[in-house]
Amino acid sequence: MTQLILFTEIENETCILLAQRINPSKNFYLKLNGPGGKAIHEKNENIDVCVIRECFEEAEIVLRNEKLLKIFEETCYSTEEWKAESCLQKEASHIVTLAIYIHPLEEPPKHTEPHNLGPWNLYKIEELLKHRNELIPILEKNIELIDIKIKTYEQDILELPINAQKLEEIKIKMGKQPQRTRETFNFFNDIELEIPEGEVPEIVDEQFPILALNFGKLSSFEIQTLIKYKKKIQELIRPLRRIEHKIQTIEKSYKGFKYLSIFDRIERKIIAQKFGENPTIAELSKDNIILHKFRDTIFEFEIHKSSTNKLRYFKLCLSKDQTQINGTTNGKQTWEFFHKNYSKLPLI
């Protein structure tokens, strides 16, 4: 099992990204944790891959291998499969490995699992040291270690084998650049150096990770090469951003409302074959079985309009609260209401 600490600095204070566990049926209810979770051992997923996958699933943040630093690993016997309940070997039913990683926070997180986690927020390490009991056990036990390792991160990350090798490679490649890139970095001597954009050389993709790792020791010349590289990347990803935006719009529209979700799994295919894509309430009401099935049912719904305020479609799902509607509906209504007011509006 993994825990990831994404860290940043705000007003000279170290902050880490955490969310509250809000699913009462899961362990450590209301405790704070970072992105992380269980390795898929059936697929032989290793622990490094696990933390990268979990971070993307829970916060849609992409981690870079060369910036990911494991600071803690412990394996113990346990009486539970996904919880480190230490015990004697003869009492154990599982062997559990716990690991903590750290990585700089480089993009805003997204709240992708609202059923399990509250919103992502930044917490000051200094405050967490005082209120460690609010953390899940593995973080509560190791909060001092996390604090220390964040402070020594820049040096520790350069010593990883993956980065040591790349640093050596970049020294060779950068040796082919003008002499000023190899001078000892001096910010005050270098600050006025400006080169016309057309004369700034383009860096290759393999050079970027090493320059990024040395972000505190870059010359103005190197920074200008990175800015030119950024513009190139922006041009490449602009079409992908448009596609992403369209997909996000569709995803937001359908989230929580599976197609024909008011019907059970077996019925959906039959209904879709009979009525086609996005049937209307009027069409569905022609079927007496459907009419009888939903006569006294209460639904939650959302009406969607176009930019010109024209009704486009509505989303419908079964309400968890099936008590009689009286007064304010709060987004709930009956089949009769939809048949009367929105009978020709496509249903998703």
From TrEMBL:
<dbReference type="InterPro" id="IPR015797">
    <property type="entry name" value="NUDIX_hydrolase-like_dom_sf"/>
</dbReference>
<dbReference type="InterPro" id="IPR000086">
    <property type="entry name" value="NUDIX_hydrolase_dom"/>
</dbReference>
<feature type="domain" description="Nudix hydrolase">
    <location>
        <begin position="1"/>
        <end position="144"/>
    </location>
</feature>
<protein>
    <recommendedName>
        <fullName>Nudix hydrolase domain-containing protein</fullName>
    </recommendedName>
</protein>
<dbReference type="Pfam" id="PF00293">
    <property type="entry name" value="NUDIX"/>
</dbReference>
